[in-house]
């Protein structure tokens, strides 16, 4: 879009009055959720505006107004066309650049959106719509601290806007600052307790911190009413499943599959629940439906493979397991949204795959890796910590900068996360005894101390040592020095 962020020419007094009258006429239609009627009215008005040069600026102002209405109708391409035409004709106003910014954002062009919001804010530094829009664009290009700054500015102007707090909470999550994120999400819920998305996001945050019971209490608020989001239902189902509450987990999974019959994730979760109950045939039916709905979804093949293995169809199960491992699991990403980036750093996302291993073991009495079904698993189950840590550290043993916030969060929250993992899953973490976690407090570690602990962890694994050796109460240390679990942590 050409044109600089400078004040445009002014309308004549008569044309300004016309524009204000038209805006006043359209506002009730837009407020009543009738943007199509508003656009039809604008189309009619524009068709009657003379083409003469004296009316060029009025036409530009009306195009800018129609751009906003296009955005109401979720038609960003048409909005951008009108906004650009308005600027070209001389209507270089903050609201015009703002509309162009939102149009570009709707077209998945965050850099272009940012440029337009910059222009809008040059003309009106306190324009909340542009501060919010630029923050969203900045999040998309991983400039989280700048996004947080814009949202703080907006909150200082409109302190009762719940969405602003929720968006800043999202920025804090991506920065690994969970305490600040939780405060903002709680504030958003206090301002607008009826908005279920805020409860969902808070539950997600608690989940990745290992606070499953807190998450279960909060997620209930996101599931009240008939228009419950699929993510909320499936997250609560998974929380119940991790807590061993299979009846509740099954009820939520069935509700999700009934309410969202065309969503593969609903049937993947239903298969998880049925596998946990040892219902291989029912699990296979749900898994088949998931594969049918989305043949590219790795999670669908994973649960179908587990169901086939439970039935004894080892060859077909092996084929599905191999297919599943060709791509990352997507259900954790779907359930946890922006919080998933932190989940990856903790390794907690393996809970679903670990459950599948347990289903197979419960039925066959042996590891799913025996007999050629899925291949031998390392001591950490299907989670490969060496692969993860190899991405975190460079060849010289230094932690890569972009991982530091997440590793800091992971280390400080590790005891709580592990306390909330079902004991049967901890057997894949060196036989770690949950009781050993009670007196561990990593919350006061500095960033440098955390980096050093993680480096030692990495070096031990590279040398073939088990970094959890000695933390199990059944494995006494040899001399009380280097093997002291408190000292190692």
Task: List the uncertain runs.
Answer: 2-7, 345-350, 362-384, 424-431, 470-489
CATH topology of the largest domain: Serine Threonine Protein Phosphatase 5, Tetratricopeptide repeat
Distance between the termini: 56 Å
Output the number of helix runs: 26
Helix residue percentage? 55-70%
Q: CATH superfamily assignment of the largest domain?
A: Tetratricopeptide repeat domain
DSSP strand content: under 5%
Structure description:
- The chain is an all-alpha fold and 489 residues long.
- The protein folds into three domains: 1-120, Tetratricopeptide repeat domain (Serine Threonine Protein Phosphatase 5, Tetratricopeptide repeat), CATH 1.25.40.10; 241-377, Tetratricopeptide repeat domain (Serine Threonine Protein Phosphatase 5, Tetratricopeptide repeat), CATH 1.25.40.10; 388-489, no CATH class.
- 65% of the residues lie in helices and 0% in strands.
- The protein contains 26 helices and no strands.
- The protein has helices at 13-31, 35-47, 56-72, 76-88, 94-106, 110-123, 128-140, 144-157, 162-175, 178-191, 196-208, 212-219, 230-242, 246-259, 264-276, 280-293, 298-311, 314-324, 331-336, 340-346, 351-364, 385-392, 404-419, 423-426, 447-462, 485-488.
- α15 (264-276) packs antiparallel against α16.
- The longest helix is centred in the first third of the chain and has 19 residues, at 13-31.
- Residues 460-489 are annotated as: Disordered.
- This is Tetratricopeptide repeat protein.
- It holds the Pfam family TPR_19.
């Amino acid at each position: 879009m050409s044109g600089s962020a400078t004040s445009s020419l002014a309308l004549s007094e008569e044309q300004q009055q016309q524009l204000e009258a038209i805006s006043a006429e359209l506002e009730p239609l837009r407020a009543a959720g009738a943007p199509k009627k508003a656009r039809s009215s604008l189309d009619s008005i524009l068709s009657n505006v003379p083409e003469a040069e004296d009316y060029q600026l009025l036409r530009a102002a009306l195009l800018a107004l129609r751009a906003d209405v296009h955005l109401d109708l979720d038609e960003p391409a048409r909005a951008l066309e009108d906004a650009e035409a308005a600027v070209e004709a001389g209507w270089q106003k903050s609201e015009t650049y703002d509309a162009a910014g939102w149009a570009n954002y709707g077209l998945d062009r965050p850099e272009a959106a940012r440029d337009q919001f910059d222009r809008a804010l040059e003309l009106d530094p306190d324009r909340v719509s542009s501060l919010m829009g630029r923050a969203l664009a900045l999040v998309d290009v991983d400039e989280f601290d700048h996004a947080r700054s814009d949202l703080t500015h907006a909150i200082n102007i409109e302190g009762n806007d719940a969405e602003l707090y929720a968006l800043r909470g999202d920025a804090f999550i991506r920065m690994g600052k969970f305490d600040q994120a939780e405060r903002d999400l709680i504030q958003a819920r206090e301002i607008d307790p009826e908005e279920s998305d805020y409860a969902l996001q808070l539950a997600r945050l608690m989940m990745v911190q290992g606070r499953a019971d807190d998450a279960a209490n909060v997620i209930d608020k996101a599931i009240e009413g008939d228009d419950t989001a699929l993510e909320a239902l499936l997250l609560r189902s998974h929380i119940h499943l991790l807590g061993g509450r299979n009846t509740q987990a099954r009820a939520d999974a069935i509700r999700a599959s009934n309410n969202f019959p065309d969503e593969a994730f609903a049937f993947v979760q239903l298969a998880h629940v049925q596998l946990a109950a040892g219902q291989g045939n029912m699990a296979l039916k749900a898994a088949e439906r998931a594969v049918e709905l989305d043949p590219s979804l790795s999670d669908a093949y994973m649960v179908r493979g587990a169901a086939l293995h439970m039935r004894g169809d080892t060859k077909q199960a092996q084929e599905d397991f191999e297919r599943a491992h060709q791509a990352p699991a997507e259900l954790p990403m779907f359930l946890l949204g922006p919080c998933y980036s932190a989940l990856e750093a903790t390794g907690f996302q393996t809970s679903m795959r670990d459950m599948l291993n347990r289903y197979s073991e419960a039925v066959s009495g042996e590891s799913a890796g025996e007999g050629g079904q899925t291949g031998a698993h390392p001591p950490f189950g299907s989670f490969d910590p060496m692969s993860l840590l190899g991405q975190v550290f460079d060849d010289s043993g230094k932690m890569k900068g972009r991982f530091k916030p997440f590793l800091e969060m992971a280390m400080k929250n590790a005891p709580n996360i592990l306390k909330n993992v079902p004991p049967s899953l901890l057997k894949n973490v060196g036989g770690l005894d949950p009781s050993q976690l009670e007196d561990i407090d990593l919350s006061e570690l500095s960033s440098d101390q955390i980096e050093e602990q993680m480096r030692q962890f990495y070096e031990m694994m590279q040398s073939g040592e088990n970094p959890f050796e000695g933390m199990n109460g059944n494995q006494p240390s040899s001399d009380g020095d280097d093997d002291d679990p408190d000292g190692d942590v």
